[in-house]
């Protein structure tokens, strides 16, 4: 028998990247409800950082990045899927890590403390 084990709409049929995208979208949606300023912000997921952003201070590999807005392009917050997945030991830890990275990037963007952005964190 050849073909997928589960039909496409079944969650088991989602790829690792699709599950990560869904997780990130859930966190963004929760933050956007609290901070309407995020409506203008773009959010993206890349597998790995570009070569010029790979090294970020104390970390060997960047987990996320804020690209400031210009006159023509709104601000963009980027998550790097593979480095985040490699640091998490399970789904729950990955959820917390994605949340932490997004909260830090949103805090930088809005010029606020991360505890103000997500006091439940």
Automatic annotation (TrEMBL):
Residue ranges the record marks as coiled coil: none
Domain of life: Bacteria
Pfam families: Zincin_1
CDD domains linked: MMP_TTHA0227_like_1
Protein name: Peptidase
